[in-house]
């Protein structure tokens, strides 16, 4: 599916002044690898937010958090910048440039970890490749502007929301609507997909509302609300909690 994402008011407010957000997309997509010393059980692919780069996951301590726990994991940080989303090619490029070559290593499990725009990317990719991804940790994922989440909350939450039939994606609004429809089906067990984990800063002034709506549909063990705003420090806290108490740790330990 060709997902369409534009620079809307919310994204502009959150990430204005980020030069890297307009870096042109390249093919194949650039990635930064950190391989396990041996045959790893699991693959993790990191997806950055707008204005972030693939190298930020190491600089912000995400790589060390996984390595310090002695997990059997190969790590790939994909340079999935905003331009791939704007052109509607992020899922295609991830599939062809990142996941397809990795299949030769025959990992037991494959996980996606993305933050903000990258959190959105984890859901887009999992929607289109539900059998390929074992699990997702979406950190403060962008899930559209408030009216969609507010409508779902007003109707009693994701389980009670009168979702449309499968949506034909034509623009950003229909992209977000189809994702929410799929999230409802996924959390209700009506469509197959990855194990979904969610982390977010409770003081995130723009994205916490939509994240909280999604969180209400998840089991307690699948959500990690932490103090803080739309910042790496909050996401790192959520990551550490996830690494200490999730199916990821169970499946990817040595």
Descriptive keywords:
single chain, 254 residues, alpha/beta, Rossmann fold, seven-stranded mixed beta sheet, 39% helix, globular
Proportion of residues in β-strands:
15-25%
Q: Which descriptor suits the 3D outline? A: globular
Order of helices and strands: HEEHHEHHEHEHHEHEHH
CATH topology: Rossmann fold
Description:
It is a single chain. By secondary structure, this protein is of the alpha/beta class. It has one domain: Rossmann fold (3-Layer(aba) Sandwich). The protein is built from 11 helices and 7 strands. Strands 1-3-2-4-5-6-7 form a 7-stranded mixed beta sheet, sandwiched between helices. Helix 5 packs across helix 6. About 2% of the residues have low confidence.
How is the secondary structure organized here?
Blueprint: H1 9-15, E1 31-34, E2 42-47, H2 56-59, H3 62-67, E3 73-78, H4 82-86, H5 90-102, E4 109-115, H6 117-128, E5 135-139, H7 146-154, H8 172-187, E6 195-201, H9 208-215, E7 223-226, H10 232-244, H11 247-252
Parallel strand pairs: 2-3, 2-4, 4-5, 5-6, 6-7
Antiparallel strand pairs: 1-3
Helix pairs in contact: 5-6, 7-9
Summarize this entry quickly:
The protein is an alpha/beta fold and 254 residues long.
């Amino acid at each position: 599916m060709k997902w369409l994402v534009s620079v809307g008011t919310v994204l502009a407010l959150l990430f204005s002044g980020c030069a890297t957000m307009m870096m042109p997309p390249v093919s194949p997509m650039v990635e930064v690898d950190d391989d396990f010393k041996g045959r790893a059980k699991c693959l993790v692919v990191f997806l950055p937010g707008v204005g972030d780069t693939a190298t930020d996951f190491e600089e912000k301590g995400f790589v060390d958090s996984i390595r310090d726990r002695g997990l059997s994991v190969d790590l790939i940080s994909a340079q999935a910048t905003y331009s791939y989303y704007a052109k509607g090619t992020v899922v295609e490029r991830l599939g062809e440039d990142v996941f397809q070559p990795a299949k030769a290593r025959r990992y037991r499990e494959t996980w996606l970890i993305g933050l903000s725009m990258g959190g959105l990317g984890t859901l887009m990719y999992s929607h289109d490749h539900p059998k390929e991804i074992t699990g997702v940790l979406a950190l403060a994922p962008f899930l559209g502007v408030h009216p969609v989440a507010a409508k779902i909350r007003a109707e009693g939450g994701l389980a009670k929301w009168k979702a449309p039939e499968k949506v034909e994606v034509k623009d950003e609004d229909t992209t977000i609507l189809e994702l929410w429809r799929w999230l409802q089906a996924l959390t209700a067990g009506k469509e197959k997909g990855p194990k979904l984990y969610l982390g977010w800063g409770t003081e995130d002034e723009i994205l916490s509302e939509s994240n909280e709506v999604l969180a209400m549909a998840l089991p307690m063990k699948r959500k990690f609300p932490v103090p803080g705003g739309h910042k790496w420090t909050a996401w790192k806290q959520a990551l550490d909690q996830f690494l200490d108490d999730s199916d990821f740790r169970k499946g990817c330990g040595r």
